[in-house]
Task: inverse folding
């Protein structure tokens, strides 16, 4: 995963994108979706999560941020350990 800060907030993208549904590497970028996150490095920020579309099966998916943010919450994993 690639994470970088922009004027509009933190952006999450993937280095190598493949479809989690069919495994195809034929994916194209399909914009972003906004999400509010609490990150200990940046604090409370607006984030943009990169969206992708599979050209093989037609399904959409987003960058996997589960290594940084718990899937049930919008809080950085290290903060969840403190809470």
Result:
């Amino acid at each position: 995963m690639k994470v970088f800060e922009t004027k509009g907030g933190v952006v999450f993208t993937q280095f190598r994108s493949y479809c989690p549904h069919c495994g195809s590497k034929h994916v194209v970028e399909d914009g972003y979706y906004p999400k509010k996150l609490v990150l200990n490095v940046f604090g409370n920020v607006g984030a943009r999560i990169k969206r992708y579309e599979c050209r093989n099966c037609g399904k959409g998916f987003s960058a996997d941020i589960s290594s940084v943010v718990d899937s049930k919450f919008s809080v950085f994993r290290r903060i969840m350990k403190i809470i």
